[in-house]
Amino acid sequence: MISYSHKDNDICHRIYKTLTARDFRVWIDLEGMHGAVMQVMANAVKQSRCILICMSESYYLSPYSQSEAQFAFEKQRVLIPIKVQSGYKPDGWLGFLTSGRIYVDFMKTDFNAAFDKVVSEIASSRADEKDSSLILLRSNKSETSTIKSQLLPTSSNQSKHLKSRIGRFEDDPAEKNTETGNKQSSLQACVAGLQERVELMDTRFEKINDSLNWIMAAITRVKMAKDNPPYIENPK
Known about the structure:
Layout: E1 2-3, H1 9-21, H2 37-46, E2 50-55, H3 57-61, H4 63-74, E3 78-83, H5 92-98, E4 104-105, H6 111-171, H7 173-178, H8 182-227
Parallel strand pairs: 1-2, 2-3, 3-4
């Protein structure tokens, strides 16, 4: 998206045409909007990934430009400041918004060289997003492992404990020799009950494990969708 003042039409429209010629999808208000201006600008910002802030005195004095730029900042869009007025130094809200950011000066640099810097900034922002996505994916995998280590080993130990108890009942000669008649029947029923409990617990552990994997995968997809909105926006 290109955020600019219509008093800077010439340079800003040239930037727009050069971007689209290189197959970038760019939203820009070419003719001057009417009606629900704020809603249109808000939708444009939401649908954009990078915002070119075309800095000039007229841009700074425009309340619409200020609202647009601040909304983009609040939505954590990538802001790329470019200077389109010779000798202009951003001040006030615009100086605060662009402070610490690398800006491209189209007034002191050849147009093509300045434009290449803009393209480089866009490419750099894409690379940063890919790195963030990779870090997020690794983090979620680590979280999954932590949850499993906290929940599943405890349940597994319970299962092993029950199996060891069954083994003692079945294999200890002393136990068998001292149990006769009804006592033997009672013991066999107890063993069968314990075996059923072990099988039931094993089944539940598998379901818990599958559920954890599904939940963490869903969290990863939601976070990646939130942090990677679609780029731009206005069809050619």
